[in-house]
Amino acid sequence: MAPDRPPVAAPLRPRALSGIQPTAGSFHLGNYLGAIRQYVALQETHDAFYMVVDLHAITVPQDPAELRANTRLAAAQLLAAGLDPERCTLFIQSHVPEHAQLGWVMNCLTGFGEASRMTQFKDKSAKQGADRATVGLFTYPVLQVADILLYQADAVPVGEDQRQHIELTRDLAERFNTRFGDTFTIPAPHIVKEVAKIYDLQDPAIKMSKSASTPKGLINLLDEPKTTAKKVKSAVTDTDTVIRFDPVDKPGVSNLLTIYSTLTGKAIADLEKEYEGRMYGALKTDLAEVMVEFVTPFRTRTQEYLDDPGTLDSILAKGAEKARAVAAETLATTFDRMGFLPAKH
Ligand code: AQP
């Protein structure tokens, strides 16, 4: 039977946990709408832990100076997006060594075939060339399993592309609990259907992604607002003229309506009415304005955090301390359950 709340002291609220990679300078609109907005919302209802997953970032070749700068930039963007260190725990993954330690345990519990079925590894290794892919990239989902289980998370806010990894997390947690006794909470993905997959503005058949073949369809939140407006105005639509939400026949227009609706809080049905009889150009012009209104203060707030490294460091230090307290307790129980001899100090 799945444990409700095994050995770690029960928090008053359910736990949420998620992470984001510092692999590109700027977060993109898919990251924001698919995941970060949910991080912000869950602060209100959950005991929420969010991290910048720098250990995951080295699964592809990285430049040390860039990784350092991007890690700070990622933390600054999370704060700018609305994470409040008084209401959630924000930290850097490598500041909590228990992630790598539990990651090893989880590696030893994962079948090779099971890991080989992860579609994200297949996609990413295909993009890089299979012989250049590292073992770290292969075991990335298993480290993610450890990230989640360390915090006994109930909910994991992510985009649709992460669903398979959360399934793996559930399988491994159940496997561990069956073999060694109830230890881990079985987490559930928190995926908001409407924004689970934001599509590339130039190719609405593929998800918006930092590794897209052309940057034209990718909205980076830290781009110059005029660049963002231009990208929205040149978004691919279709040869029809009707503004209607129909992801199968009108994927480009539907993607724009989803973005518009999420950023403004207007229902899609209301937007369809508002734009009845109007041209695609009108929708794009208005959405470009909405985007500019959104990214402009976001850029300013991000810069303010970057300009105050003392405050940023102190937020991250406090976050790591809080995260470690939880992670260390889970790891100690895990090691004990597995039969590791406790160290005598
Ligand atoms: N297009 C998207 N729509 C909705 N959610 C998305 N996410 C990413 N793209 C979309 C979600 O953002 C969170 C952080 O993801 P990450 O740190 O794993 O970043 P990523 O997946 O590396 O972002 P990319 O751009 O998708 O990178 P590549 O091109 O390397 O694959 C996750 O919750 C993710 O679901």
Largest beta sheet, briefly? 3 strands, parallel
What share of the residues lie within helices?
Answer: 40-55%
Ligand roster: adenosine-5'-tetraphosphate
> How many domains?
2
N-to-C series of helices and strands? EHEHHEHHHHEHEHHHHH
Motif ('KMSKS' region): 207-211
GO molecular function, one term: tryptophan-tRNA ligase activity
Catalytic activity: tRNA(Trp) + L-tryptophan + ATP = L-tryptophyl-tRNA(Trp) + AMP + diphosphate + H(+)
Keywords: Aminoacyl-tRNA synthetase, ATP-binding, Cytoplasm, Ligase, Nucleotide-binding, Protein biosynthesis
Explain the overall architecture.
This protein is mostly helical and 345 residues long. It has 2 domains: 15-195 and 308-338, Rossmann fold (3-Layer(aba) Sandwich), CATH 3.40.50; 225-299, Tyrosyl-Transfer RNA Synthetase (Orthogonal Bundle), CATH 1.10.240.10. Helix content is 53%, strand content 7%. It has 13 helices and 5 strands. It has helices spanning 29-42, 54-57, 64-81, 98-107, 112-116, 119-128, 135-150, 163-180, 225-233, 251-264, 268-274, 280-306, 309-338; strands at residues 15-20, 47-52, 88-92, 155-157, 188-190. A 3-stranded parallel β-sheet has the order 1-2-3. Strands 4-5 form a two-stranded parallel sheet. Strand 1, helix 1 and strand 2 (47-52) form a beta-alpha-beta unit. Helix 4 (98-107) packs parallel to helix 13 (309-338) and helix 9 runs antiparallel to helix 12. Residues 1-5 have low confidence and may be disordered.
